[in-house]
């Protein structure tokens, strides 16, 4: 009797072992998928010399305009697979004079400029919904949207025809509109 049951036990062991291997592989695959689906966040560390300004639309191609980009007359760089907020900020600081603005678009593009186009509209942060190619947890703009940072030494910015002035509330810096008729 022993010889007839041993092959059956071996077969059950093989099925059980295969099921364990499959379950382990499935668990690893699910864990790996979970790690890549972390929500993207706005990078707010100011150690690089820039502070987050907001999510703005790309202005090129808007009817009845000169077609200028939101961040134009500066420089740009594309780093497919390697763009992060820190990489872009460093790129915009390099040179004789650091650029006032650093903006990221389409996950791998970095744009640097001294001015932000006044027709650029600010959107909710969630509109800049593409993760950076080099760090999937950081927001790097979106489709025709830029995650824009301003150099920390700047105290005012003009957006959409309104001058905004930096104000310090406790430890937080925020921008408030400046009424030009009060000057």
Residue runs with pLDDT of under 50 for 5 or more positions: 12-35, 168-173, 178-183
Name the beta content range. Answer: 25-35%
Major beta sheet summary: 6 strands, antiparallel
Q: Tell me the radius of gyration.
A: 25 Å
What count of helical segments does DSSP give?
2
Mean pLDDT comes to 78
Structural class: alpha+beta
Oligomer: single chain
- The rounded distance between the terminal residues' Cα atoms is 103 Å
**Could you spell the SSE succession in H and E letters?**
HEEHEEEEEEEEE
Strand line-up across the major sheet: 2-4-3-8-1-5
What's the total count of β strands? Answer: 11
Shape, per Cα inertia axes: globular
Roughly how much helix do the residues carry, as a percent range? 10-25%
Secondary structure topology:
Elements: H1 2-36, E1 50-57, E2 75-78, H2 85-93, E3 101-105, E4 109-113, E5 122-123, E6 131-132, E7 135-139, E8 145-151, E9 156-159, E10 162-169, E11 172-177
Antiparallel strand pairs: 1-5, 1-8, 2-4, 3-4, 3-8, 6-7, 9-10, 10-11
Could you write a compact summary of the structure shown?
The protein has 183 residues and is an alpha+beta fold. The protein has two helices and eleven strands, in the order αββαβββββββββ.
Structure, described:
This protein is an alpha+beta fold. The protein has a domain at 50-154. The strands form three sheets. It has a six-stranded antiparallel β-sheet with strand order 2-4-3-8-1-5, with helices on one face. The protein has helices at residues 2-36, 85-93, and strands spanning 50-57, 75-78, 101-105, 109-113, 122-123, 131-132, 135-139, 145-151, 156-159, 162-169, 172-177.
